[in-house]
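Re: How this chain folds, sequence and tokenised backbone to follow

Filed under: protein folding, tokenised backbone structure, sequence and structure records.

Contents: The amino acid chain and a row of whole-number tokens, matched residue for residue.

Body of memo: The sequence and its backbone structure tokens, given next.
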Amino acid sequence: MKIRSRSYRNPSASQDFWPSFTDVMSTVAMLLFFLMLLAYIQNIMTGRRLAFFQDELENTRIQLAQMNADLDISRGELEASLLELDDTRLNLEQIGQRLEDTRWNLMQTDEEISLKEEALRFLEDEIELARAEIEDGQIRLTLSQQEVEAQQEIIANSNQELGNLRSRLSEIAVFRVSILEKVSISIEEEIGKYTETGEERVSIGPNANIIINETLLFDYASAVVKDDAKQLLDQLAIAFERMLDDPEIRLYIDYISIEGHTDSSGGAGYNRGLSADRAVSVVNYVMESNPNLEEKYAGYFGIGGFSKFRPLEEGEDEEAMAKNRRIEISVVVKDENIRHMIEEYLGEGLQ
């Protein structure tokens, strides 16, 4: 039986183990290869991501550097603006100080004029007193004829001096009118007194100012000088220069005021801005038209905007409103010349 069972055993049974082991090893090798391939791919992807992040980081560094540079430029511009602001503040403080000095000088001038006016009234009272004394002396007949004649001579001299003073003051009042009349005549000689529609180009108003109708200079609600008005303003610029070239005229002129006026339509604030803008436009054009005028005499010109508050005529009709829309030119005489005349008169009277 043992022989039979030994011969029954399969002689190749011991060889089945090796093919199975080979399959397992192949599978393990493939798994290891697959894992290495995955690690290799992962390394490639990681390298690419790392390169991408490095590029992004470099771009971010560049942008930060640019932002820092822009920030430095902005900081420099801000510092420059602050310096300019400080300079502007200093200039405003200086201007405020000059205005305060001017206000103080004006107050002193007003006080001096008040004192001179009081002295003038005192002199007139003295004259009246002298007259009263003469009349009293004539009534009582206590004074001698010689004393009466002496008193009459004093009174006559005082009256003559007072008349001379009044005459000279009147000459100054007429002087500014004559200046503006010369300007008006000069313009009329060059371009005529009337427009093609029969409107008077310039006229002398009741306050002795030159009046230019607004419709000749500007369109409705506009501060831009019309082309048709430029010839008029060109001649006005020439006339101003000729006038100021005369040293005797300049001696009495304090400044020339260019004033804008509107009608009563519209709000006060809007009209105030419009009237001032129109006056500025006239002065700017006159100076641009005649550079010699600006170079030599720009300091003689001032600007004012009076809105609707200084009408020539009361009323809401179109004729009155048209007259109220205007540019006025006024010559302001120096007060110091008037004071010199009064002081000179008082000085002679006290001698």
Residues 6 and 277 are 134 Å apart (CA to CA).
